[in-house]
Structures are given as C-alpha cells and as structure tokens.
Design brief:
Number of helices: 8
Order of helices and strands: EEEHEEHEHHHEHEHEEEEEEEEEEHEE
CATH superfamily of the largest domain: P-loop containing nucleotide triphosphate hydrolases
Number of strands: 20
Strand order of the largest sheet: 6-7-8-3-9-10
Shape: elongated
CATH topology of the largest domain: Rossmann fold
Radius of gyration: 23 Å
Number of domains: 2
Largest sheet: 6 strands, mixed
Structural class: alpha+beta
C-alpha cells in the first residue's frame, strides 16, 4: 500500500474540514476525487502531498509512518508533486521553468536538457520550449505545469482540478496525458474534479468527499430521511417520504430528519421473479448501465434514482439491461448517517 490513512482529522479555526476514518491508496493507480466546493478535496491533496499536516491521525507512506518534522518532510516532497488548479509559471521561457527545479536538485546540464525535452514531449509542448511562459493559454500553462512536475521524476502526482480552467480541446489532451503518464511511467495519480464522467473515464477508483468525509464515490446516493424508533430494538428509515426500510437499532441514527448516504458498493440486485422478495428491498427499472474502469455502474429508478456498482463477473452472470425490472437489495450496513 502506497498510503495508509487512519483517523485523520484536520481542523481550521474550530471547524473540522476533514474526518477520514480509513483510506488506502495503492501504487501505480489513478484515483479521482469528487465532491462539492468546500468538501475538503484540496486539503486532502495538500496533506497527501506533505504540504500540510493533519490535526490528528496517522499517515503511513510506503509502510513508514509520516513524522512531521521539516527535514523529513523535505525528503518526502521529492517523491510527491502537487500541481495546483491555477499553476504559476515564471515569466521566462518554458525551458527555464522546467530547468529551475532540476538546478535546485543539482542535475548536470546535459541531463537537464534530456529530461526537459522528454517531459515536454510527454505533454505535447516541445515546440513551445523557448516560448515565453507568460503568453501561454490556460490549457498550455496546465500542460507545462504537468511537464515541470514530470521533470522531477515523482512517484506520486497530485492534480487539483487539472481541467477546470481550460478549453475542451485541452481537457481531452490533459486527460490523455495523465493516462499516458500512469501507463508509461507507472506514476500514481490522484486528481480532483467536479466531472463524474471525466473521473470515470480516467480513474481506476473514484473517491467522493462530502463535508470532509468519504462517501465511497457516490454523490447521488445522498438523501434526506426520517428516522423513527420502533419496538424490538429496530428503527424505521423513510427516504424522501417514499422508500421505507426496517433496520436494527445499532446504526446510532438519531430520531427525526437526517441526511444519509447509501453505499453503492454494498447494494445488489436480482431480476424480478428469480428469487423471492427480500427484506429491505425495492423494485424498479434500470435506466442506465455504464462501465467505470473495473466495475459496472447501474442507475435504477425506484421512485428515486439509486446508483449501485457490481463487478464485471457478477454483471455477466445476470446481464441486466436498460429497461429491465429488478429488485435492489439494501443490506443494513449500506446505510450511514451524516
């Protein structure tokens, strides 16, 4: 495991902006980090990039516990590079922007020249090598910033909204560049975005942050619900006045109106008529089927839209198609209060 995080909390001015119980990031993979503004995405990237420290909690990097002393962090920062949403380039040539970090690391001149040309080739910007950096477009600036990061030979690349301020043509180019970097250089990549389809096309795994907490990549499975205590140590959970579930009263959900997230990874489905109806299930129609790297994502209309993920193997065994009527099964551990 490249990163292993436990009980991480970050507090700014008495406000908790991150609260992550556990997170593991594997080597040589691409992670897309989704979430609304203020969800904590940039803070998490800065912590993983060793630019900020958590208030409490532990981070292991390459199986070693991260110790927050400046001398030790300097060494870690040589392996992880963060590219900001609006990167700042020196008002010199593109070449000199890439050369600066290599000079700091005392790379000899001939080696610097080879590294710079290779990095610019990777991002399709070699013809701009001697161009004034301050005259580049937003997309060109972002690509040069990626080249500058690659020139430092990082093991991990953190990109904060890499396509947010660029045109459609450069968006496609940047997505391809990140994919190529991961495949050819085996660099682990974590990038933030608001675009789920973009994350699905690029990432091996999607993470979703809401109010500083991980919710397993599903913004859509956030609902308002009413909780009512029942006898026999059970609770009634009613979502948006429609779907109703009876759960064991070990979820520690307060009575009344709350927000919940339903984990799409823990839901399952069966075609109607194949099995007897199960407790805490609901019937509806599949309205969307799509592939997200290693899993299949389905959207089912149950009166409200529910997203669930299934493995490719499980999908092939059932072959549910758009328009099919299905039963969605909700295990008790798929619900979590926010």
């Amino acid at each position: 495991m490249l990163y292993s995080i436990s009980n991480l909390i970050k507090i700014y001015e008495n406000r908790t902006v991150l609260k992550i119980d556990a997170l593991g990031i594997e080597q040589n993979r691409i992670y897309g980090l989704l979430g609304p503004n203020g969800a904590g995405k940039t803070t998490l990237i800065n912590i993983l990039g060793f630019l900020e420290s958590p208030t409490t909690g532990e981070i292991y990097y390459r199986s070693k516990k991260v110790v927050y002393s400046e001398s030790l962090l300097q060494d870690l920062r040589k392996t992880v590079v963060v590219v900001d949403q609006t990167p700042i380039l020196f008002s010199t040539s593109v070449y000199k922007n890439l050369e600066f970090g290599l000079k700091v690391r005392k790379k000899p001149g001939k080696e610097r020249d080879f590294i710079i040309q290779e990095a610019l080739d990777l991002v399709g910007m070699r013809t701009f090598m001697h161009a004034p950096a301050h005259r580049l477009s937003g997309g060109e600036t972002q690509r040069v910033a990626l080249a500058r990061a690659l020139a430092l030979s990082p093991q991990v690349l953190m990109c904060d909204e890499p396509t947010a301020s660029v045109d459609v043509e450069n968006q496609a180019a940047i997505i391809k560049i990140l994919d190529d970097i991961n495949r050819e250089k085996k660099i682990t990549i974590l990038f933030t975005t608001h675009d789920r389809s973009q994350a699905a096309a690029l990432a091996h795994q999607i993470l979703f942050l809401n109010n500083g907490m991980l919710t397993n990549g599903s913004r859509e499975n956030l609902f308002r619900a009413n909780v009512r205590k029942l006898e026999d140590k059970k609770i009634q959970l009613r979502i948006n006045g429609g779907l109703q579930f009876i759960l064991p009263d070990n979820k520690k959900l307060p009575e009344g109106r709350i927000r919940i997230v339903i984990d799409p990874e823990k839901l399952s489905l069966s075609k109607l008529g194949e099995d007897p109806p199960m407790e805490n299930s609901a019937t509806g129609k599949i309205i969307q089927v799509g592939e997200e790297k290693e899993k299949i994502r389905l959207v089912v209309d149950l009166g409200i839209q529910i997203i669930l993920f299934t493995s490719k193997q499980a999908y092939r065994s059932q072959r549910p198609m758009v328009g099919d009527r299905v039963e969605v099964i909700f295990p008790p551990d798929s619900f979590r209060g926010l």
